[in-house]
Write a structure and sequence with these properties.
The structure holds two protein chains of two kinds. Chain A is an all-beta fold. Chain A is built from no helices and ten strands. Chain A has strands at about 5, 10-15, 20-25, 35-40, 45-50, 55, 60-65, 70-75, 85-90, 100-105. In chain A, the strands form two sheets. Chain A has a six-stranded mixed sheet with strand order 2-10-9-4-5-6, with no helix packed on it. Chain A has a four-stranded antiparallel sheet with strand order 1-3-8-7, with no helix packed on it. Chain A is globular and about 35 Å long. Chain B has no helices and eleven strands. In chain B, strands 2, 4, 5, 6, 9, 10 and 11 form a seven-stranded mixed sheet that branches. In chain B, about 40% of the residues are buried. The chains are: A mainly beta, B mainly beta. The interface of A and B includes residues 43 and 94 of A.
Chain lengths: ~110, ~120
């Protein structure tokens, strides 16, 4: 099983500032990496797939990068509506494991 | 519009069984691998099980292997998860999720249901 580890567990960022979230895979997953955003009492929503492709309707302030075992998602200018928990997921093989999540807070 | 609607959750005693359903609409259900993902209250996401579009392959997390069974009925556009020998640690919201790519075993999830809550307690 591929283990996904996210860092940090919690990130506090001021509005308008940049937020960078990281995800590491225990073995290479190529670019088969997705990010999901989950707001309180909602189902997860697809944010990014293929490590760097924004899903439909996702604002341009979100960007993803990385390949192999190291990945990041960056929010260029944090908005209040971006407050959520972010999960990475590898879909290189079953089980499609998730990271433990990063909670993004407003400073 | 793609819709995934889970049902079947509820309160159940340890050791008992439950069957979850996911009704799909708005896409060609028999072309896509489908998954169950769970989330314990206040915790992260855990992939539970997946089944290919033609039911040729099924996979399970180690935590549920031998206790949960995934199935689908393409004629009814429905996905199922049979939960047996339930434990308190199975308490969670259970989401069904659709794979993005057609006739692909591995893919990310582009649509999720709203989830159904399973509570295992005496």
């Amino acid at each position: 099983e591929i283990v996904m580890t996210q860092s940090p567990d919690t990130l506090s960022v001021s509005p308008g500032e940049r937020a960078t979230l990281s995800c590491r895979a225990s073995q290479s997953v190529s670019r088969n990496l997705a990010w999901y955003q989950q707001k309180p009492d909602q189902a997860p929503r697809l944010l990014i797939y293929g490590a760097s492709v924004r899903a439909t309707g996702i604002p341009a302030r979100f960007s993803g990068s990385g390949s192999g075992t190291e990945f990041t998602v960056t929010i260029s200018s944090l908005q209040s509506e971006d407050i959520a928990v972010y999960f990475c997921q590898q879909y290189d093989d079953w089980p499609h494991t998730f990271g433990q999540g990063t909670k993004l807070e407003i400073k | 519009e793609v819709q995934l609607v889970e049902s079947g959750g509820g309160l159940v005693q340890p050791g008992r069984s439950l069957r979850l359903s996911c009704a799909a609409s708005g896409f060609s259900f028999d072309d896509y691998t489908m998954h169950w993902v769970r989330q314990r209250p206040g915790k992260g996401l855990e992939w539970v099980s997946g089944i290919t579009w033609n039911s040729d392959a099924m996979g399970y997390a180690d935590s549920v292997k031998g206790r949960f069974t995934i199935s689908r009925d393409n004629a009814k556009n429905s996905l199922y998860l049979q939960l047996t020998s339930l434990r308190p640690e199975d308490t969670a919201f259970y989401y069904c999720a659709k794979s993005k790519d057609m006739v692909a075993r591995t893919s990310f999830f582009d649509y999720w249901g709203q989830g159904t809550l399973v509570t295992v307690s005496s």
